[in-house]
Amino acid sequence: MLTDGKEEIFLHKKEALDAYRVGEKITVFVYVDNNGRKTASTRMPKIVLGEAAFLDVVGSNYEYGVFLDNNLVKDLLLSKDDLPFNLDLWPVPNDKLFVELKEKKNTLFAKFVGRKQVTSFFPPSEPLTEDTKYQAYVSYLLEEGLVCFTEKGDEIFVHHNNTRRSYRLGELVWPRILKVNPEAEYVGTLIEQKESMIDTDAKTILDYLDGHKGTMRFTDKSTPEEIQAAFKMSKSAFKRALGSLYKQGLVVLESDKTTRKQS
Predict the structure, then answer these.
(1) pLDDT the model gives residue 198
(2) What is the reported pLDDT for 154?
(3) Does residue 46 lie in a domain region?
(4) What is the count of structural domains for the chain?
(5) Could you write out the DSSP letters of every residue in 165-221?
(6) What letters, b where the CB count within 10 A reaches 16 and e where it falls short, cover 73-107?
(7) Element spanning 148, H or E
(8) Is residue 256 part of a domain?
(9) Residue 147 and residue 177 in one domain
């Protein structure tokens, strides 16, 4: 039991980081536990009321939401009401979400920070450099694309045209900076350059070429049955992928064969 001379507060052994002596003065974080009792912890939380930070996702419960590590025995809940309806877009363990600590009816919980308020929690940082990749986390999912934030609070918008798949909230990404838009926001892309930029069908064709010494007998004149047997794709998909590889200068098209262009 702890006291400040006015009231007593319980410190559970799970929340104690040491064996304390009677009369020893210690610093604790006070909160309300699951039973509605005021309790103490010698573990210092990553954020307290009025603060915000990137917190690690440690688990989820589709009836309630996701749980975040605030360095206490009791994890913080971010309500399912704040998360996408599509469960595939929910964060998974080790993703990071930028949230602030809130309190209601003696219960602590996490809440997303408004997009335009995120930068107010960070000191000014060095400008990002165009054509450079930066580590960031998907923080907002918009109809137009993704809003990502670096751990220094830099906002990077990635339009859907500059992605090749869907992304989860909290997912770690490495957008490459394309430009700064008139709203002073960075615009980035998650499409890799050169070969890593190709789509799945084109990658299948390149893998086939690499496994056959860089040459194959298949061309845009091959029959649908031949293409389906070799690549498990339709002829139209094959032609689109082959055309994409040709435009990128990765293959040479001949009347009777297709060859991997050597760099």
Answers:
(1) 56
(2) 94
(3) no
(4) 4
(5) S---TT-EE-PEEEEE-TTS-EEEE-PPSGGGGS-HHHHHHHHHHHTTTTEES--TT
(6) ebbbbbebebbeeeeebbbeeebbbbbbbeeeeee
(7) strand 145-149
(8) yes
(9) yes
Q: How far is CA 134 from CA 55, 99, 151, 204, in A?
A: 19, 21, 10, 29
Higher pLDDT, 34 or 233: 233
Last residue of a domain, one of 72, 90, 113: 113
140-170 pLDDT, tens digit each: 999 999 999 999 999 999 998 788 788 999 9
CATH for 157: 2.40.50.140
pLDDT of 195 > 60? The answer is no
Length of the chain: 263
Domain that holds residue 210: 195-260
| For residue 65, pLDDT beyond 50 | yes
Structural domain ending residue among the three candidates 113, 140, 160: 113
